[in-house]
Write a structure and sequence with these properties.
- The complex is a heterotrimer of chains A (547), B (99) and C (113).
- In chain A, strand 3 and strand 4 form a beta hairpin.
- Chain A has a 7-stranded antiparallel beta sheet, with helices on one face.
- Chain A is of the alpha+beta class.
- Chain C has 5 helices and no strands.
- In chain C, helix 1 runs antiparallel to helix 3, helix 1 crosses helix 4 and helix 3 runs antiparallel to helix 4.
- The radius of gyration of chain C is 14 Å and the shape is elongated.
- The chains are: A alpha+beta (547), B mainly alpha (99), C mainly alpha (113).
């Protein structure tokens, strides 16, 4: 395309990157944040910041199952399904939840969750509506304000571009080993390039993995052609063969009483030993075809499969077949899926995933900033002569400001809305999300009018202060503040406050760095204008010649 | 009707058209290559159906990337279309033959 | 907490390993020591770095299993690499000191974990 393969790949890398980088930044940002999905969800529900925390204990299972079943029979007789959720490491509380019957035309009903008080008697029922961490999780593949299917096609398209950008990036980075540790600071475009190289190369295995596995999670939608040829398009048959235990049984309509759940515990223990149980789901309640499914807490095993033990709700006999050892293909698929979701990661590994995700965001941001800086340098002469920068440059600089500076601020807005919007407000979960996007829009409006470093400093400064104030926000709007959480070892809640504070500090440093650059540049500009004024006659003479 | 004074030959051969053509080739013809490739692979891998379909689907994205890079590496955009469409056609013929 | 001390120990060793690999390169050695490395020194640093990396990986999968250990190790070295780059960029002359410190700290954590 260009004279050499190398030049073509360089061109390709720039353009596949530039065309979709802002969508990718949103995806990567939301994905990285959703590594802490459950911790964020916990923080956004101050009603359960005290009196609900307990650890999983095998001795309590029988009692908890009995209580749960009694509670659910009393409060949710006509529900579509019941769930008893035992305490896990990331959700350290016991809760009973159910799904109401879906309204006409809808696929799903409303999900209601009541959390058990540690005194064993009360239930916390009035928890504020908030999507919490699930907002960020869904955002990174379902986007928002559009049907999920369209969003997934858009995200898939952008991910293919990302994959191409990664491969072409590897191909063109000739000095990948020689420049592995190079970071030349304070050298303008060169520094941005080095930062881009570092954030890409250091976490390259992660970037390749997360991009490819992202495509794999939705491969049935993007590339179903294997099913078309081998199964004549019968997706159901394919899914049945893939996961034989997962057949869904519809309600028969004949009522039949549900057995005591706790009676099934010995059978479960016989199969699973001491593995903690995560959840018990009861479907087709009080029906002949009722099913009781036990899900285990897979802990740190690198798997995404959730193979339940399924019992008949009427007779108590085991209806799920014993799962045979997975084939190589199934195991590979399962490993790849679990690498993407990282459900197995305990806190330290989870933090490493978070760092790598952050490096992915840095890779995208430095890439597009690098382009903007380079093009501005190229156009500097024309700009000095009074011309406006090109449309492309203005667009890129505007989008950079909107997304790179706007996303952290929007996240803050989401958290502040979560705490400050009235708890009984209608649709408050959606309004928290609206505040997120409203801030992005406002940043975009600002970017439309002013793309200078001053705007960057303003937005970064505001995000920095907002993030640093999150512990204060938590103190003012929750029953437990940071030091109480640290004392009671609720590290999810404490960690949220601490990490927000540290992010605030980092943003403040970034703002300071921009201020220094600004002073340097304006000093340089002032100096050069002084020089220019001095040598004006000389320069006009030369331009006359050059024109 | 008066046609604008355009040199159509030069327009077709211009860089923007070249880029657009290759991009469409990479996106659409590339998808065809990946689709037919994974469809064929699902049929010919000597494992149980569900497993070969899994493998074929997981590999499909690599075919897509390879096809896209191909579209931007060959000499002309016409060649890009030709190569990718030819490969898809051959793979599709094989699918028809095998099934 | 056993696994956390092992992880921290491996982080220290990875820092040492990457620092060594960096110092094996001409420009970074000069940045840290203000003189050029001899070919023998370069080679020694290079193989030492890879050696420590290999041993750390082995220890990692010994304690955490092959799957989990490999994943943890990949994340670990990304962070270690970043720390070495930041050291070289902001405090190049302190790199050998930090490397020595991390070697000692890592060994202590491993022994007393």
């Amino acid at each position: 395309m260009k004279e050499t393969f190398f030049r073509s790949m360089t061109w390709l890398h720039t353009w596949v990157g530039l065309l979709v980088c802002w969508v990718l930044l949103l995806v990567f940002f939301a994905g990285t944040v959703s590594y802490y999905r459950y911790e964020i969800s916990l923080w956004t529900k101050p009603e359960i910041h005290s009196d609900v925390f307990q650890n999983y204990q095998t001795e309590n299972l029988t009692h908890q199952l009995r209580e749960g079943q009694a509670y659910l029979s009393q409060h949710a007789e006509n529900a579509k399904d019941w769930r008893i959720n035992f305490p896990t490491e990331r959700k350290p509380y016991l809760s009973y939840s159910w799904q109401t019957q879906p309204e006409a035309g809808k696929r799903r009903g409303q999900f209601i969750e009541h959390i058990a008080h540690v005194n064993g008697q009360d239930m916390v029922t009035d928890v504020r509506n908030s999507r919490g961490g699930n907002f960020f999780y869904r955002l990174h593949f379902d986007l928002h304000y559009m049907p999920a299917k369209i969003a997934r096609w858009i995200v898939g398209f952008c991910t293919m571009f990302m994959l191409l950008a990664l491969i072409s990036g590897i191909v063109i980075h000739k000095r990948i080993f020689k420049d592995f540790f190079s970071f030349r600071r304070n050298k303008g475009g060169r520094s941005w390039l080095d930062a881009h190289n570092i954030s890409s190369v250091l976490a390259l295995p992660y970037h390749l993995m997360i991009t490819y596995t992202g495509l794999i999670t939705l491969m049935l939608m993007y590339m179903p052609w294997g099913v078309m040829t081998a199964y004549d398009g019968d997706t159901r048959a394919f899914r049945a063969e893939l996961k034989p235990g997962r057949e869904q049984v519809a309600a028969s309509g004949t009522p039949a009483p549900l057995i005591q759940l706790s009676e099934l515990l010995p059978t479960v223990k016989a199969s699973w030993g001491d593995t903690p149980i995560k959840q018990v789901v009861i479907s087709n309640i009080n029906d002949e075809n009722s099913r009781i499914s036990f899900y285990k807490n897979t802990g740190q095993s690198v798997t995404d499969l959730r193979i339940p033990l399924i019992f008949s709700g009427v007779s108590g006999e085991l209806v799920s077949k014993a799962s045979s050892a997975p084939s190589a293909a199934n195991a590979t698929h399962d490993t790849l899926m679990s690498l993407h979701t990282a459900r197995f990661a305990e806190p330290v590994l989870r933090f490493f995933f978070f760092i790598c995700g952050f490096m992915g965001c840095a890779m995208i941001a430095t890439g597009t900033l690098l382009w903007a800086v380079k093009i501005r340098q190229k156009q500097q002469k024309l700009i000095k002569q009074g011309n406006k920068p090109s449309l492309g440059l203005r667009l890129v600089e505007g989008l950079n400001l909107t997304f790179i500076a706007g996303l952290p601020l929007a996240t803050c807005a989401f958290f502040y809305a979560n705490r400050l919007l009235p708890t009984q407000m209608a649709d408050r979960a959606q309004w928290e999300i609206h505040s997120f996007f409203a801030v992005i829009c406002l940043t975009a409006v600002l970017a439309f009018f002013d793309r200078s470093l001053t705007s960057w400093r303003r937005v970064l400064g505001l995000s920095a202060v907002a993030f640093m104030a999150i512990p204060l926000l938590n103190w003012g709007t929750s029953s437990q503040h940071l030091f109480q959480n640290m004392a009671s070892q609720q590290w999810a809640l404490a960690g949220f406050d601490i990490l927000s504070f540290l992010i605030g500090i980092a943003l403040w440093f970034a703002r300071k760095k921009l201020a220094q650059t600004h002073t340097k540049t304006s000093n340089r500009v002032a100096a050069s204008t002084a020089w220019a004024k001095k040598g004006k006659r000389v320069s006009t003479a030369s331009t006359k010649e050059g024109a | 009707m008066v046609l604008p004074n355009l040199n159509w030959r030069a327009f077709i051969r211009s860089q923007p058209i070249n880029i657009m053509s290759r991009s469409f080739a990479a996106i659409f013809a590339g998808y065809l290559v990946a689709a037919t490739g994974s469809g064929l692979l699902a049929l010919i891998i000597p494992l149980p159906a569900s497993q070969s379909v899994l493998i074929a689907m997981m590999l499909s994205f690599s075919f897509y990337v390879a096809a896209a890079i191909w579209a931007f590496s060959v000499g002309t955009s016409r060649q890009a279309w030709r190569d990718l469409l030819l490969i898809s056609a051959i793979l599709y013929i094989f699918i028809l033959w095998v099934s | 907490m056993i696994s956390n001390s092992i992880t921290l120990s491996l982080l220290n060793f990875s820092y040492l390993a990457f620092g060594s690999l960096a110092l094996a390169m001409f420009s970074h050695f000069r940045g840290a020591f203000n003189r050029s490395p001899s070919p023998a020194q370069s080679k020694l640093l290079y193989w030492f770095g890879w050696g420590v990396l290999a041993v750390s990986y082995y220890i990692g999968i010994l304690y955490q299993g092959f799957a989990y250990g490999s994943i943890l190790f990949t994340g670990l070295i990304s962070l270690a690499g970043l720390l070495v780059i930041l050291t070289l960029s902001y405090r190049a002359h302190h790199l050998p000191h930090f490397m020595a410190g991390s070697g000692v700290f890592g060994t202590l954590l491993l022994i007393f974990a």
